[in-house]
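REQUEST ID: PR-0412
SUBMITTED BY: lab tech R.K.
PRIORITY: routine
TASK: structure prediction, single protein chain
INPUT:
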Amino acid sequence: MTSGIREASHAGSWYTSSRSQLTEQLDEYLSNVQPIPALDFNPPVQNAKAIIAPHAGYSYSGPTAAWAYASIPTEKIKRVFLLGPSHHVYLDGVALSTCEAYETPLGDIPLDLETITELESTGVFSQMRKSADEDEHSLEMHLPYIRHVFEGRTDLALVPILVGHPSPAKLSQLSEVLSRYWQDDETFFVISSDFCHWGTRFSCTPYYPNAPSPPNPVPPVPPASASPPSSASATNGNVPPVLIKKYGSSSNTDNGGVPIWKSIQYMDHEGMDLLRRPAETGALERWEAYLARTKNTICGRNPITVLLHLIQHIYSEGPEEKKPVFSFVRYEQSSQCVSGRDSSVSYVSGVLRVPQ
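STATUS: complete
OUTPUT:
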């Protein structure tokens, strides 16, 4: 049984509940998205099949998310699968909404009830309680953007999926189920994830004292200088982060290393680099090894892992030139940490392209 319309429970706090103000805000964010010739990025991206975009309050992550949402070739999409991590309830698998529609200040988004019924019939999914659905921001923070970029489209339908901690066996089942929908040219996938949550309040203080500039910097991170990194060993991606025990001063430069924000930047770029070719043999294993080694608090790690499993399932064979590739087009931090007392959250926008 369906349980009516999911309330926009974070409107008025995480983003404005005013239709006019929200429209103006999203328009402003999207207007700031520009082509990036070096990345062959000129939105909308006609062969885009999925995006990774953040889910924090719009004053923090809204400008970054615009770079992902500007990429969607909306004119040919009728169904959006939205995968977000579960922050408030423990799930040992994946769950579907029981609602008929999701409310936004810009208008409701109907759920694809036929597809949800098909997914329920597989036995792979559980159901979200409506209260858990409304508590979860990882799904809701994408809804205004989805409704806005598909403005006026009455044929758009949503399939929200809350991702917990599916086992390898469950991930394999899920890939088999989702592959049918992936093959549909009118279906698009949105993966909800912030990147590093750094600070003692997140119980996350990994640190590379000799972090170099990222070899593949994501805008607006500048390209690496011609000078060599301070530690050659730090460039090989195999050095465990050093746990920051305590900072006794306001700046970590007194501890003899690079600024904390630069260490975070390098660690996040390590993860993005591992995702660039998700169909490549070993990509999934390298991603999981990176998460285990760095303990990077990428809150959407499990939805990203679901996507990797799905891509590996579908594209394990075939020519390399036909396999999907991620382009990362925006990277921001909520603040630049220089002290052990500081904290920040990183935001990433990535676009997955499937060569035609």
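NOTES: The first strand starts at residue 5 and ends at 6.
REVIEWED BY: pending
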